[in-house]
Amino acid sequence: MRPDLFRTALGLAAAAALAACTAGGTPVSGTIAVDALTAEAGNLSVGGTTTLPDDACLLTQLMINGTLAPDWPTDCVTPAQGAWRQTVALGAKGQPPALLPGEKYELLVWLRDHPEVGSRRPVELGGPTPQP
Fold it and tell me: What CATH number did the domain enclosing 52 receive?
């Protein structure tokens, strides 16, 4: 067999095996809540609570007027004892230089590879808006 065909066949077999494991695997469950969003001293701090284990990898994304915030960090946020927190320097790496009154902000947080385990929360500059 040609090496390129062998690599393709091996890749397809691995993908099929992974898909079979994922499809029949145990569903992931847990909750993630956004409890705080504060902007001060050139930083944006977000945080909340979760029922996920301490080794979970949470990802966040800030939306500004329905658009992804530019260059938002893609690092895992690891919870500790049911709480998680992330601080992002405003104006660094293409981030917005400041949060502006009148803009619509929303924070998304989810478990890596499992977007069904997550939360969307509209926020105001003083903190999250009450949920209905």
Answer: 2.60.40.2140
